[in-house]
Amino acid sequence: MGPSGETEDSRLGDAAYYAVAIAAGGVVGAIGTIFHLAVDRIGTWPSVLSGGFGERGLLLMVVMALIAAAMVMVSVLIVRTYAPEAAGSGVQEIEGALEGLRPVRWKRILPVKFFAGLLALGSGLVAGREGPTIHMGASVCQAASEWLRLSTRDTRGLLAAGAAAGLAAAFNAPLAAILFVIEETRRQFPYGLRTYTAVILASVTSAIVTEGIAGVGPDMQIDVPDMPLLFLPAFVGLGVILGGVGVLFNAVLIQALDLARTIGLRWSFYIVPAAVGLTIGVLLIVRPEATMGGEALAVTLAGERLPLLVIAGIVVIRFVMTMASYSTGVPGGIFAPILALATAIGVLYGTSLGAVMTLPEGALAALAVAAMGGLFSATVRAPLVGMVLVAELTGAYSVLVPVILTCVFANVVAEALGGKPIYEVLLDRTLRLAGQTPPPPAALAADGSEPIGGWDQRERKG
Q1: Where exactly are the transmembrane stretches of this chain (predicted)?
Q2: Is the domain 229-426 a CATH 3.40.1190.20 member?
Q3: CA–CA distance, 36 with 45 (Å, rounded to integer)
């Protein structure tokens, strides 16, 4: 053991450690951007197929349903065969790894997350690309850590840096990615100048590479004018509503996962993916707004004035399909679906207000943007990340104060209702199903370097 209590693994100097973080960030940025562009490309198959049919009849619907179902089922097959831990977002897996409770088996996670994720997201499922990129980003850094034989503390710092770089690549939002580590992994991250600087360098490098490949600019550009001060109470009300919706979202998501698992254990694990895939294939024709991650939908909704009942229908169907898609067990995140659902709720709220009062110019767009941050805050329970993520995604810095109000009140209401952060709940569920329990906070050393009962200790003994 060294003087700091760490193992005798290699401990790089600060300059070398930062160089590794920069290099890893560049690799993650390239992988994440290629993944993003590939998802966009493969996601065009419904329009290509539709163009090959003279009219949108029953035959087209059947063919699209079968193709979507096949893509989802193959994705599930790859995950279940080669890397079960690649299912879902992956954020909870990284948090578990930072606590020493979950291994990051990068050799199988990287290919499975990439190719199974392409099939899942390309099929039209309501899932986001950010989950896979975060998990792949951490896997790249795990590979570097093993190659360099870094200490436990340095490895965990680099894992967090890789996860942040993945988020930066997914949304071109480096500041939100840095804050995500600070706020979301505050219980696990081994804070220090060295590890914190590595997170910053990896995130910024990833964003630079992303912009170099895909171009510069917000991923979801929405033009919003300044809101009058007298309209600020509307954002407080929106935050209160979203606080309740966030708690409901988290509870139903866990129930959907448990129901899908029960069905899988009783009959077959492919029943739910097949059913959801068939449904997605049909919806790609009859209700395309109910499919895909939803980034484009969010921008469209914020700029259109749709009838109240139409918006309400979009809210309901997006909520249901988000739950159904995530329960299939494919690689996919929930950030993007949350943002799209929130936009619909914000527009629904604004349209309802417009029926009883005169709204200021651009109010619907402002409420849509604020709702993104509010629902994110209520589900992920990271309000600071929600504020900054929305600003970087949309470029709508003019409504920063309304966004802050919405995020704060959504977070407060979610806390008052007893809601827990979704990734904390997902991690607890993962550990419970694996027969593990997280250690109490006192079981971790002050620097997070020596977990009790962690996977790294078991591997060293082995």
Answers
A1: 15-37, 58-79, 158-182, 194-217, 229-255, 267-286, 306-328, 334-356, 363-384, 396-414
A2: no
A3: 16
